[in-house]
């Protein structure tokens, strides 16, 4: 009993301290200054989270694999991924009790549909789950989980200090920028990722906090890990302008592989989604993943070791620990092996997340880009009419693949330059990233992050009209003051209802609350003053069907499209065929103006 009293007392005391701080802050610190302080704090914590996750994965990976044989197959590759997925599923099911997959998509959904509120367990749950998944060989990346972690830190800190929606959203961006800056030591890429992928508006009000967070996150990693970049590379073969056609070819190839990644991964996800039993899903995924990694060891984990080997020119490392080790000196058969690695990497990544693992597509995109770049250069070199740097193409391919998969060419360009130090190849990186982006945009207008949300009309974009419509909720614009009438009511009863109404539309609803039609005042004006018709004229004979019927869950842009198509000013809203109320175009415009002012206010 005394323990409960002490806990309650401490909670009250903490709330009191917070309230006193908030009052002091309002009196002494301007909001703009406080936002800058908050962005520093968010960047600091996000950078520490990135540091923790990266090291946890590294030590787990090293502990499990440092004694494996290089020149032969290793049966442990069959077991490790399944064990990792099992541990992840158990952790999520019994401790988290929430879906924490698809980190970036969940952030975008929170911004558009959850008032930028992200559950507090995301401050740590993605770190633990992705460590178990990736450390044991799951073929995904750590970046999306740490981005979700950073975004959650930003959201929860901002809400702790009672910030409004716009600042909470900005702090989500700051958390993501700090996480990317921290895990890659790439502050520019962290800021650009937030603007390009999370689609925050670029204004001075947002630019400075994002810069502060991304620089702080990167500085944390530099402080603890030194100046070494994620992928070290010295450009020994400079950019030659005559090679531009080959960079264009690489861009097209990267765009097509990006399309394969996006389309096929979503197809595989839909298959796994049909398996309702999480343990069956885990067993199927664990077995498939183990077999793929046993056959193709480069698929194990994030794949940065393979990328570094290709950058160093050690292409034979692709077949290390593999039953295909004998291919290391066969030029063309090794290329066939590389094609299989590209094909199965997409499957391995999707199987990892589809079966219950937690991870993102950053690292798989970089891996695919590196292998694709190596493949293109090696194929061209095989014809002996020109000698291309396979290492350069490995680096440039990463930018092309990331630009294609994420639909984020600027993020790809700056990230690859920052994590490799490859500034001497800035021009070919830009060429390949741009071509890859244009190639996939021809086939797929939405990225792998946004495709699901765009289908449901839940995606915030840089188009302010669409963004504001996405933020609007149907429940805020439904009008319920219209008088309902029964289809069996007489004209006389309808006239009495009209006399007590200030509206000119009357929904006809049966005993089960189902909408049968509407009666318009203009349609009955000529007969409503004819008493001889009051008793033998019924509402069902007077009603008409509305031009369209809206579902309560319909996205607001589709609602506006219905108004434009029908020319109506009022439309009924139903839920499971049951009448809820009406939506008027005038009410939508009024709410739209208020949301637009709030959304655009700096």
UniProtKB/TrEMBL annotation:
Predominant subcellular localization, coarse grouping: membrane
SMART domains reported in the protein's UniProt record: CBS
Keywords for the protein's UniProt record, in alphabetical order: CBS domain, Chloride, Chloride channel, Ion channel, Ion transport, Membrane, Transmembrane, Transmembrane helix, Transport
GO cellular component: chloride channel complex
Transmembrane segments annotated in the record for this chain: 34-57, 77-96, 124-147, 167-186, 198-224, 244-261, 282-300, 331-348, 360-381, 393-416, 423-443
Domain CBS, chain residue ranges per copy: 478-537, 543-602
Membrane topology type: Multi-pass membrane protein
Record-level Gene Ontology MF annotations: chloride channel activity
Subcellular location: Membrane
Protein name, UniProt field: CBS domain-containing protein
UniProt organism field: Labilibaculum euxinus
């Amino acid at each position: 009993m005394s323990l409960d009293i002490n806990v309650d007392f401490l909670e009250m005391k903490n709330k009191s301290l917070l309230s006193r701080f908030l009052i002091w802050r309002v009196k002494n610190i301007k909001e703009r200054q406080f936002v800058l302080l908050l962005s520093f704090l968010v960047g600091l914590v996000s950078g520490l989270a990135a540091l923790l996750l990266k090291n946890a994965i590294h030590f787990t990976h090293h502990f499990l694999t440092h004694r494996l044989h290089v020149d032969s197959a290793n049966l442990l590759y069959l077991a490790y991924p399944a064990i990792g997925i099992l541990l992840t599923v158990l952790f999520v099911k019994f401790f988290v009790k929430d879906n924490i997959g698809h980190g970036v998509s969940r952030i975008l959904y929170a911004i558009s549909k959850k008032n930028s509120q992200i559950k507090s367990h995301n401050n740590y749950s993605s770190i633990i789950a992705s460590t178990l998944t990736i450390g044991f060989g799951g073929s995904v990346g750590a970046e999306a989980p740490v981005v979700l972690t950073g975004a959650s830190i930003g959201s929860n800190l901002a809400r702790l200090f009672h910030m409004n929606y716009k600042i909470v959203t900005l702090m989500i961006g700051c958390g993501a920028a700090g996480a990317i800056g921290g895990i890659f030591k790439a502050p520019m890429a962290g800021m650009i990722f937030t603007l390009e992928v999370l689609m925050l508006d670029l204004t001075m009000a947002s630019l400075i906090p994002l810069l502060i967070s991304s620089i702080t996150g990167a500085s944390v990693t530099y402080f603890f890990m030194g100046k070494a970049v994620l992928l070290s590379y010295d450009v020994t073969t400079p950019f030659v302008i005559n090679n531009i056609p080959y960079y264009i070819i690489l861009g097209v190839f990267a765009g097509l592989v990006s399309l394969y990644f996006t389309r096929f991964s979503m197809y595989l996800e839909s298959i796994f989604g049909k398996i309702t039993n999480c343990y069956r899903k885990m067993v199927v995924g664990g077995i498939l993943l183990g077999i793929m990694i046993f056959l193709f060891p480069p698929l194990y984990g994030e794949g940065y070791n393979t990328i570094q080997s290709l950058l160093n020119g050690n292409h034979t490392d692709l077949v290390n620990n593999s039953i295909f080790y004998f291919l290391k000196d066969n030029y063309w058969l090794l290329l066939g092996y590389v094609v299989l690695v590209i094909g199965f990497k997409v499957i391995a990544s999707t199987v990892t997340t589809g079966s219950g693992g937690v991870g993102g597509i950053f690292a798989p995109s970089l891996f695919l880009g590196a292998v694709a770049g190596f493949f293109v250069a090696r194929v061209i070199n095989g014809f002996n009419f020109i000698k291309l740097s396979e290492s350069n193409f490995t680096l440039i391919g990463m930018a092309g693949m990331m630009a294609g998969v994420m639909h984020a060419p600027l993020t790809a360009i700056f990230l690859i330059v920052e994590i490799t130090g490859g500034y001497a190849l800035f021009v070919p990186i830009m060429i390949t990233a741009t071509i890859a982006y244009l190639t996939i945009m021809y086939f797929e207008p939405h990225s792998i992050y946004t495709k699901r949300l765009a289908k449901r009309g839940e995606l915030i974009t840089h188009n302010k009209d669409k963004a504001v419509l996405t933020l609007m909720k149907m429940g805020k614009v439904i009008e319920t003051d219209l008088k309902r009438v029964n289809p069996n009511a007489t004209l006389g009863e309808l006239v009495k209802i009209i006399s007590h109404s200030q509206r000119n539309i009357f929904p006809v609803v049966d005993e089960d609350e189902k909408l049968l039609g509407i009666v318009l005042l203009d349609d009955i004006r000529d007969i409503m003053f004819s008493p001889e018709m009051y008793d033998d004229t019924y509402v069902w004979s007077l009603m008409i069907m509305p031009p369209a019927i809206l579902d309560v869950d319909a996205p607001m842009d589709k609602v506006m499209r219905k108004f434009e198509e029908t020319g109506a000013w009022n439309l009924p809203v139903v839920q499971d065929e049951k009448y809820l109320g009406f939506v008027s175009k005038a009410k939508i415009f009024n709410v739209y103006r208020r949301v637009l002012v709030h959304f655009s206010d700096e």
